[in-house]
Design a protein that fits this description.
Elements (H helix, E strand, L loop, with lengths): L2 H12 L7 E2 H7 L6 H9 L11 E2 L16 H8 L12 H4 L8
Parallel strand pairs: 1-2
Helix pairs in contact: 1-3, 2-3
Length: 106
């Protein structure tokens, strides 16, 4: 995929406020590419720009990914918890309470 596609995803992720998360599919929809959730994952895993808070992107169940555990197991969770993101007993983000609520294109 072209760099502009990844850039569109990065632009969306930069808007996710501290203490909130978005799913890969949500980021894809907000970027105007609703069927590209997997591509969002590739973009986040390959991002080395510290201005893009990739750790705020989780899977559709609220699961974290090892690709963001750059400093050891549990890095993504620790970063999210430091921002106040709540986790369920099963280790997934409580999406009902912490998902970024925004107007999405239809």
């Amino acid at each position: 995929m072209s760099g502009w596609v990844f850039q569109a995803f990065y632009d969306v992720v930069r808007r996710i406020p501290e203490g909130r998360v978005a799913t890969y599919g949500q980021v894809a929809r907000l970027a105007g590419m609703p069927r590209c959730a997997r591509t969002v994952g590739y973009a986040m895993a390959g991002c080395h720009d510290p201005s893009v808070p990739c750790h705020r992107v989780v899977d559709r169940f609220g699961g974290t990914k090892a690709a963001f555990d750059t400093c050891g197991p549990g890095t993504q969770r620790a970063l999210l918890e430091a921002e106040g993101v709540l986790f369920r007993p099963d280790g997934t983000v409580n999406l009902d309470r912490c998902r970024w609520q925004t107007e999405e294109p239809r």
